[in-house]
């Protein structure tokens, strides 16, 4: 066979099976879905996609041969098992062709959406005009809106402790932003300001969450966009995570750094200096150790995630510190972000 005729490797296929369900209008115990990222396959014409949304971060990072996940939205919850299989069941129906077309990532956000979702976003939004230099989204705050840029350009920036503003990237017409905070509950990572006069469609948090509940497919599309951005950010971060190179926490947050170590399967210790010293050990990308002063495990992780200023240094010449934290690395990161958000809400309520 000529080299040009060799079949291209495909993403692995996983089968998801419902183990237990609570307040679920779609599935019963034993129902299954199949996934070959980023495609979803089902015998049903209508299906909730929250299980796949929960599985997606694992799949993108390289899930093992089997495991379990939990998912749900508002009043429902469910537990699913996943297992790697040889191929997609040919009798299954592909729900959305757009989810298997890699070139959809290069078109505008609205062009990636099925008509009903695009209409729902437009009908429940307002159009805002910004002048050059206007601050559209403040960093380190709870997100209030999901934005789609209709005209003009915006700059994603980060301000360091020394007051200097660094431009991280530029978004253009058709790009969206603000989804990370609304999807995860975490605070926004960076500032976004108008690089010129621009128009943006803005969907308020309550309307955005309602649309997510009505169209779970939107979560899949947004997570695909996020995974693409994470990969690009990881590429930049991997150039910093070498012996003798240090970085600034005001530019790269600890969560971003850890995701990069995880995705590049690095082994060594991440030394972080904020209000105190912290050490995080990794073995082939898996977070195995976390310590900060007298705090150990996830308590040390939570403390370090609060630091907005400081520095980091990753040393691959050191053996990873002794294990004192268990669990999936991405799950630990997301759970810590959730705990951080909950504690911030409680602190604000106490002040009021």
C-alpha end-to-end distance: 72 Å
Arithmetic mean of pLDDT:
78
Helix and strand sequence: EEEHEEEHEEEEEEHEEHHEHEEEEHEH
Beta-strand residue fraction: 25-35%
Question: Helical region count?
Answer: 8
Strands of the biggest beta sheet: in what spatial order? 4-5-1-2-3-6
Low-confidence stretches: 1-8, 93-105
Q: Taking Cα atoms only, what radius of gyration do you get, to the nearest Å?
A: 21 Å
Helix content: 25-40%
Structural class: alpha+beta
Largest sheet: 6 strands, antiparallel
Strand runs, count = 20
Shape: globular
Describe the structure.
With 352 residues, the chain is α+β, with helices and mostly antiparallel strands. Helices cover 28% and strands 30% of the residues. It has helices at residues 50-61, 115-123, 179-184, 205-214, 217-238, 254-263, 298-305, 329-351; strands at 13-22, 32-36, 39-42, 66-71, 77-85, 93-94, 126-130, 135-137, 145-151, 154-159, 165-171, 176-177, 191-194, 198-204, 246-248, 268-273, 277-283, 286-292, 295-296, 311-315. The longest helix is centred in the C-terminal third of the chain and has 23 residues, at 329-351.
